[in-house]
Amino acid sequence: MLCETATMSGAPLISARSLVKRFGSGPEAFTAVNGIDIEVAPGEAFGFLGPNGAGKTSTMRMIGCVSPVSDGELRIFGLDAATEGRKIRARMGVVPQLDQLDNELTVLENLVIYGRYFDLSRKAAAAKARDLLEFVQLTEKSDSKVEPLSGGQKRRVSIARSLINDPDLLLLDEPTTGLDPQARHVLWDRLYQLKELGATQVITTHFMDEAEQLCDRLVVMDGGVIVAEGSPQGLIAEHVRREVLEVRFGYGRNEEQLPRLDGVGARIEVLPDRLLIYDDDGDGALNELHRREVVPESALVRRSSLEDVFLKLTGRTLVE
């Protein structure tokens, strides 16, 4: 299904050095991406995480060669994004955050017409489209118009369409936003199969569980810079402890318990509705509370997640 990358063995598929994206000029200029370095290997699933305004979308648009680089160097497939964007886009598949399907056409027609943009004959595009619809489990919807499809089905059509040119690189912007859990898991399965076939994927997502499931490696961005980089499990091990004990003493009454919890766990985070006690042994921390006769309204021990890392690095304040 996918063609082999033409990059040299061991060379990164994407390489960014001191990458900058500015909007405007002079004192009114805004720097959305501020000198980041990135390397993505062939066959890797690479993720961008960050709050609103972190610079993820601006970075993805530069990688997609639809937004020019303001400063620094960006090479994709060994080609300069500043001068060879057309060649790069021809080897790339894009799944935008908002589906850009033609509601007046059938599912099959959406794929065939898109294939024509890549100089596929109508016969070749139709054959490829049928194979892709079988891959995303939508063969029975081939002759259906797009408009009545469910959100999950439309996302699968978008993924199928993005593969019509056998791309070496697949860009996915918030691929499961707005989908129900069942549809999300179907998409995860298809993306995992694409990875097994050798597809390189670059993903932005707000779902931490999705990043843990899909990404081999990721960066966390905040304020236009990279604040952390690594595998999901590596970031969890580096920035938080293995487990979290969540205890509640009543809304607004958690901070007053801190003196009684001194020395319990490796780190304690105070929230209005609960306390988070990070430790490699959550049950041991809970036993220590019992030993001290500290009785919360509720207690829960859970595995630390990428969300804990994300919130520690970027904060819990809403960014509009």
UniProtKB/TrEMBL annotation:
Name its cellular compartments.
Cell membrane
Under Gene Ontology molecular function, one entry of this record is: ATP hydrolysis activity
Q: Which domain of life is it from?
A: Bacteria
Q: How does it sit in the membrane?
A: Peripheral membrane protein
Entry's Gene3D superfamilies? P-loop containing nucleotide triphosphate hydrolases
UniProt keyword terms in alphabetical order = Antibiotic resistance, ATP-binding, Nucleotide-binding, Transport
Q: Output the InterPro entries linked to this UniProt entry.
A: AAA+_ATPase (IPR003593), ABC_transporter-like_ATP-bd (IPR003439), ABC_transporter-like_CS (IPR017871), ABC_transporter_ATP-binding (IPR050763), P-loop_NTPase (IPR027417)
**What would be one Pfam family of this protein?**
ABC_tran
Q: What is one GO biological process annotated to this record?
A: response to antibiotic
What do the Gene Ontology cellular component annotations say? plasma membrane
**Acyltransferase among the record's keywords?**
no
Domain (ABC transporter): residue spans on this chain: 14-248
PANTHER family in the record: ABC TRANSPORTER ATP-BINDING PROTEIN (PTHR42711), ABC TRANSPORTER ATP-BINDING PROTEIN NATA (PTHR42711:SF5)
Family the UniProt entry places it in: Belongs to the ABC transporter superfamily.
What protein name is recorded for this chain?
Answer: Putative oligosaccharide ABC transporter ATP-binding protein
Q: Which organism is it from?
A: Ilumatobacter coccineus (strain NBRC 103263 / KCTC 29153 / YM16-304)
Organism taxonomic ancestry: Bacteria, Bacillati, Actinomycetota, Acidimicrobiia, Acidimicrobiales
